[in-house]
Amino acid sequence: MNFDLDAEQSFNDIKDFSPMMFLNLFENEEVFNEIILTIFPQKKTLFLLNDYFKELSEEHTRYKNLYQILNNLLN
Fold it and tell me: What is the pTM of this model?
C-alpha cells in the first residue's frame, strides 16, 4: 500500500479525522515508524497534513500540538 501515489486524494480522505486519532498515531514512535511510514513512504501526504495542521494551529490549539509533533517527526 502506498497512499502517497495520489497524495492530494489521500490528504483529502484523512484530513478531517479526529485530532485525537492523529495524536495517538503520531505519539507512538513504533506505530509511526512501522506503520505510518510504510503506508506513506514518500511522506507527501504527511507533509500536506502538516501544512494543514499548521494552518489550523493559528485558530485551534489542539492542532498546534499536532503540527509540532508531526513537524518534528518529519524533520
Answer: 0.93
